[in-house]
């Protein structure tokens, strides 16, 4: 089983190809970890979501979305606090920027679960949940505990600068997480904001660093080699959820393998699988990751073994 730990929220996405600041907004389930969990469920993985979700109407919709995707909600904590809202603005190239409404919301009050099920083999972390206290400390404790237990851990920092009041303090915390991370995945924008380099991050602990580079594709760095695959060309509606879909494809594609067990050919196959899944997500508005059957229709038979 894979567990995805972190926030869920509602993305308010502007309608129409020529959206303006006052365009109508459509509510869609979102949040990096939530999108990753849904993507894993749609790809056919056994997955559970670990978070705190509101009991308000948005929260009920978020839980329903998990169940519809085949994601277990047995690790979800519930509370009466409101759901976090993210107001998206979409650029001409489909790229998305966000403004957040996070004060007093449910996901910030996540508490460390006593234990995860014994069958958990991998845990994914990232985005707002590691930046906003008091929940961030609980997620960080979960990362350290599960890494020490031997689980594969994926970290996607998915930086939202507007939610990080002290950049230097966050960068220091990020460096402290790396010894507990098996697989670090981040975008070029994240990498530029954090500073450092894949080589420096690898020295601190991760077995592999995957860098997403938009239209330039995906690159993996290990201590032994570097592999790049091209992006899949599609008509882009927006890029919301594309990076989260990459997370899901990487975790699902790894299966029971350790991140340091793949050779260059296996990484090429895995990255190509992730690129195809992310491209399909980009073809529709909001975070709508593909189902396994859609990848099969495009020639991807599912989990690449390499």
Summarize the structure.
33% of the residues lie in helices and 24% in strands. With 306 residues, the chain is an alpha/beta fold. The mean pLDDT is 92.
Question: Could you characterize what this model shows?
Answer:
With 306 residues, the protein is α/β, with parallel strands linked by helices. 33% of the residues lie in helices and 24% in strands. Strand 12 and strand 13 form a beta hairpin. The longest helix is centred in the last third of the chain and has 19 residues. It starts with a strand and ends in a 9-residue tail after the last helix.
- What fraction, in percent, of the residue positions are helical? 25-40%
What is the number of strand segments? Answer: 13
SSE class: alpha/beta
Q: End-to-end span in angstroms?
A: 21 Å
Strand arrangement across the biggest beta sheet: 5-4-1-8-9-10-11-12-13
Low-confidence segments: none
Structural shape: globular
Task: Name the helix and strand elements from N-terminus to C-terminus, one letter apiece.
Answer: EEEHEHEEEEHEHEHHEEEHHH
Radius of gyration computed on alpha carbons: 18 Å
Q: What share of the residues does DSSP label as strand, in percent?
A: 15-25%
Number of H/I helices: 9
Mean pLDDT: 92
Major sheet summary line: 9 strands, mixed
């Amino acid at each position: 089983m894979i567990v995805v730990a972190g926030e869920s929220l509602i993305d308010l996405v502007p309608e129409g190809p020529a959206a303006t600041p006052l365009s109508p907004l459509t509510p869609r389930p979102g949040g990096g970890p939530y999108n990753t969990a849904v993507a894993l469920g749609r790809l056919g993985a056994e997955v559970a979501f670990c978070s705190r979700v509101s009991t308000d109407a948005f929260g009920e919709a978020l839980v329903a979305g998990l169940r519809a995707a085949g994601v277990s909600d047995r690790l979800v904590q519930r509370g009466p606090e409101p759901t976090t809202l993210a107001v998206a603005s979409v650029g001409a190239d489909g790229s998305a920027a966000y403004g957040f409404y996070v004060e007093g919301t449910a996901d910030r009050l996540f508490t460390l679960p006593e234990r995860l099920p014994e069958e958990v083999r991998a845990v994914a972390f990232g985005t707002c949940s590691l930046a906003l206290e008091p929940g961030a400390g609980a997620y960080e404790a979960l990362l350290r505990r599960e890494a020490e237990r031997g689980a594969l851990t994926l970290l996607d920092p998915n930086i939202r600068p507007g939610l990080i009041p002290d950049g230097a303090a966050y960068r220091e915390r990020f460096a402290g997480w790396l010894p507990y991370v098996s697989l670090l995945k981040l975008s070029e924008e994240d990498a530029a904001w954090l500073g450092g380099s894949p080589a420096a991050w690898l020295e601190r602990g991760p077995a592999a660093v995957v860098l997403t580079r938009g239209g330039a594709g995906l690159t993996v760095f290990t201590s032994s080699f570097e592999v790049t695959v091209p992006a899949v060309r599609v008509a882009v509606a927006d890029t919301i959820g594309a990076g989260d879909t990459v997370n899901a494809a990487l975790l699902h594609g790894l299966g029971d393998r350790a991140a340091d067990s793949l050779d260059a050919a296996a990484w090429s196959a895995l990255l190509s699988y992730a690129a195809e899944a992310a491209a399909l997500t980009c073809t529709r508005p909001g975070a709508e990751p593909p189902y396994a059957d859609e990848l099969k229709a495009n020639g991807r038979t599912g989990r690449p073994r390499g």
